[in-house]
Amino acid sequence: MEELLYALSNAGGKRLRPAFVILSSGFGNNGDDNILNAAAGIEILHMATLIHDDIIDGADVRRGHPTINHLHGDKMAVYMGDYLLTRAVMLLSRAMPEERMERLARGIKSICEAEVEQFYSRFHYEISLVTYLKRIGRKTAMMFSYSCGEGAFLSKTPYEYARILAKFGFYYGMAFQIQDDITNLTRDSAETGKPKGNDIQEGVITLPFILAMRNSSDLKECVKQMFLEGKPEHKDIMCITREILHAGGIDGARTWIERYRQKAKSMLMSLPNRREKEILAALTEQIGH
Question: Which ranges in the chain belong to alpha helices (H)?
């Protein structure tokens, strides 16, 4: 178990969610161990969800490192994901009162529901923009919002600022997920740790896909035919990726990133001037660059 924990802790990642807990706590006046417990708990919870994602996707690599399921099999990976989930709950329950833990439980429930919906809608190419935005709001943006909100709550940040920070986290998370979806189509596996076009291969319809098919009926028909034939092959994925680019799917998705970036920045403008605010603003600017 210790060997697996060590491998996970050294497998890279941005650690943004715990950073947001700590940065958001800087707008209050109570920096105690509860904040660190919450930050660690949220990151461990995130790691648990990634392990379960890798099992479902049959992924061999994440962040350039072999996955737990690839090295030790699906059974051990399930145990490891469950173990991390338990450790996360233990840390978070030390940090938070019961009513805040209930809020976390509702958030985890929302993530699971969004993932199940995504799983059952694979290869359904007619997913709407509204459905996509709601889904990433529940599975990604919600956790960023929670991280900011709980950091603010634990440091006794004034309610007005805590509410603003939670909204900032949500908008940041929306932009973050859209950028991740673009990266899946445009960057090589050496950079991302996942095969280029992996979302297409798994039948996951993301924003660049949706926007490109709006602009090109030929692309839509091509995707329909490709999905009817089963899992796309590598040559199909490369072809579709090029068509998404030519049909404006990537540029259109970047416009949505900028929309959410501006919303996040507008939230920060309402906060008092502190070093933490400058760091959050800098992180917001980095999305997509």
Answer: 2-9, 16-25, 33-57, 68-95, 98-120, 129-136, 142-154, 159-186, 189-192, 198-201, 207-215, 217-228, 234-246, 249-268, 275-286
